[in-house]
Amino acid sequence: MAKIAVMGHGVVGSGVVEITLVNGEQLKKRSGETIEVKRILDLRDFPGLSYSNLFTKDFQDIVNDEEISVVCEMMGGVSPAYEFTKACLEKGKSVVTSNKELVAQKGAELLQIAKQNNVNYFFEASVGGGIPIIRPLHQCLAANKIEEITGILNGTTNFILSKMLDDNMPFEEALALAQQKGYAEKDPTADIEGDDACRKICILAALAYGNHIYPKDVHKEGISKLTLADVRYARSWDGEIKLIGRAAPVENGKVTIMVGPMLVPQDNMLSSVDGVFNAVTVKGNMVDKVTFVGRGAGKSPTASAVVADVVDAVKSHGTSISQTWIDNGESMVADYLDDVVAYYMRVKTADVSAAKAYVEQRLPEVEFLDYDGSAEDEIAFVTQPMVARESHTLEQDLEQNGIQPVSKLRILQ
Amino acid sequence: MAKIAVMGHGVVGSGVVEITLVNGEQLKKRSGETIEVKRILDLRDFPGLSYSNLFTKDFQDIVNDEEISVVCEMMGGVSPAYEFTKACLEKGKSVVTSNKELVAQKGAELLQIAKQNNVNYFFEASVGGGIPIIRPLHQCLAANKIEEITGILNGTTNFILSKMLDDNMPFEEALALAQQKGYAEKDPTADIEGDDACRKICILAALAYGNHIYPKDVHKEGISKLTLADVRYARSWDGEIKLIGRAAPVENGKVTIMVGPMLVPQDNMLSSVDGVFNAVTVKGNMVDKVTFVGRGAGKSPTASAVVADVVDAVKSHGTSISQTWIDNGESMVADYLDDVVAYYMRVKTADVSAAKAYVEQRLPEVEFLDYDGSAEDEIAFVTQPMVARESHTLEQDLEQNGIQPVSKLRILQ
């Protein structure tokens, strides 16, 4: 019999409790033990549940209970989740979480504490919801050098972009629909400005490259400025616009890492990942590209990833098996302006033919895009790869020639 | 220091040796030990290699060497791979394999022997080449009941189908190209008749449902009778034809399982998996659908999966952690004629309008398909779901009305 605690009885936390009740036999078969929720921490009251008797408002009831061997931290945010997690690990309890904010901020430290206490800190659910990605990445890692990680890591923005593309829905309307369906928060900033995706790519990159990467060091761009025009130009180019998190090793042990909307060509698997689905492509030097696709959020998918971690924590009790990374105090993030990248650009101009002539002269191998019904005072084009820094010079040059840049998106190679 | 042996120095076996040489530092970091190939078993001579001194023609040099803790069986076929694997497990050595034929035939028995001897029998590379699928399936399994497994499990046939669809290449020509590129064997029967895919879906189903499934009990259909007409009709329906292996639990503890070409709608992730890529979709009752995509064959991808298993075998030496299934002597395979399935059919007829009228009367909710340049003496249509057995009655009825069935494909729901 393994006794566990759940801290935070919100959407995912309650899902975890439900799975232990519904799939209990399954869990016993897989972990070798009956898994029982002994305590649930929440400041709110939940009367009328079949398990209302398990609730406590006092963290001490969990951390000081020696019977509890695994704690699921489903609280979200950094504090007090951080202090509670640390205390549980130091008391020899494994901790399982879906809290990407905490892992992205304090992962290295908590993993070290887990190791020192011979327990585990698992966070499969923090990236990609129900998609197994952390363990498969380990597996790829075992025999491969990871050359690139690219992912659609936020379901809300992918839902919005799909609605824009497939239903010609303007951004604001698609966002409102996402909120109505419960995909987006009332304050959707973390989703649409890329913070959420940024935390996840930081976690994946830390795992792959061994050093903690702080989200604040990572360049990110959101999707709030995208218009239907961009989406249609993208289609005319046989591509889709996706919010992509990307990390890849560059010279001197640095990693180029960023989050932003990118033009994804249709022959890239990520282009066909629509709606609230997430996907991660890992490119290894031996295995080439492998892609994992599934529901990146939602109660049951995320809770199922948490419970799978619980099973692993129960099976490995007393042995620290989780992959770790360190925080050596130095940022391994390369300057994103040194990236070499091709761009899609949309510009406004009073004189289209003059603007085209200038662009052609400035960018000899440019490819112009067009679609039925495009605005008469704008042009759009795709460049050859250039150092990102040069794209700013290009924008200045365009402006000096009476051409106003409106959109600039990276192209995913 | 962990010493391993490789049995069979073919494409994958030599790849395994190479990875241990090229990514040695990586492997040490991941497994905690230096991994060294001590012996290689092959009846052929390989002079002039940097490691030619490691070869032996005598299996006893491996099985009786107490220093060797992990053996990679890369020989293929059932015998003598079976006898050698058994002997190694009984001597307390873990065995890692990419041999799907052996796992599909003798998996249950070898897993039991591994368990009894406190060692592991790992076979990640036997399904999906380099794609991590066996372990992610465990992970999904931990918290989910698996409601369905569907997969594109053979890269050769997927390459052929992609060529037919994208380049209008007839089947024979696409097969010849696959052979020329080294994807298909000289005798391509196992690929194009579905035997290879069948072994893999049997392995996945055994893992998911706990009982051994013999390939001989599974209904399978190949792709050799497909024509360009079928592929174009499929496109007109917004679908693609893929060779699909599928398993799903039905009543009475049985599993419906089969391999055959199916019409896959474009909103199914599997429809966009092209060329030599493989993909597996697992549907769990909590996580919904997760899909794993990557190179299903090839030297480096497959060898990298083998080496990842070696790392796991080294790390878990002395503990049996592999998932097992049993062979209870009873087939859990349900009669495929009891499946409920919608069909695509193409038929030849002397009188198209009479045939259409008959089909419409016989199948009230039928959907007719057409494409530019379709043959004048044939029609194609998509049916509503029916019990598979009834599709044979339908074919007889058609024939009795002067309508000759030419193609019949299942539609993947």
Automatic annotation (TrEMBL), chains A, B:
Catalytic activity: L-homoserine + NADP(+) = L-aspartate 4-semialdehyde + NADPH + H(+)
Pathway: Amino-acid biosynthesis; L-threonine biosynthesis; L-threonine from L-aspartate: step 3/5; Amino-acid biosynthesis; L-methionine biosynthesis via de novo pathway; L-homoserine from L-aspartate: step 3/3
EC number: 1.1.1.3
Key words, A-Z: Amino-acid biosynthesis, Methionine biosynthesis, NADP, Oxidoreductase, Threonine biosynthesis
This protein's record includes keyword Ligase: no
Domain of life: Bacteria
Molecular function GO labels: homoserine dehydrogenase activity
Name of the top EC class for this enzyme: oxidoreductase
Residue ranges of every copy of the Homoserine dehydrogenase catalytic domain listed in the record: 132-311
Stored InterPro entries: Asp/hSer_DH_NAD-bd, HDH, HDH_cat, HDH_CS, NAD(P)-bd_dom_sf
Domain Aspartate/homoserine dehydrogenase NAD-binding, first and last residues per copy: 8-124
Protein family membership: Belongs to the homoserine dehydrogenase family.
Protein name: Homoserine dehydrogenase
Source organism phylogeny: Bacteria, Bacillati, Bacillota, Clostridia, Eubacteriales
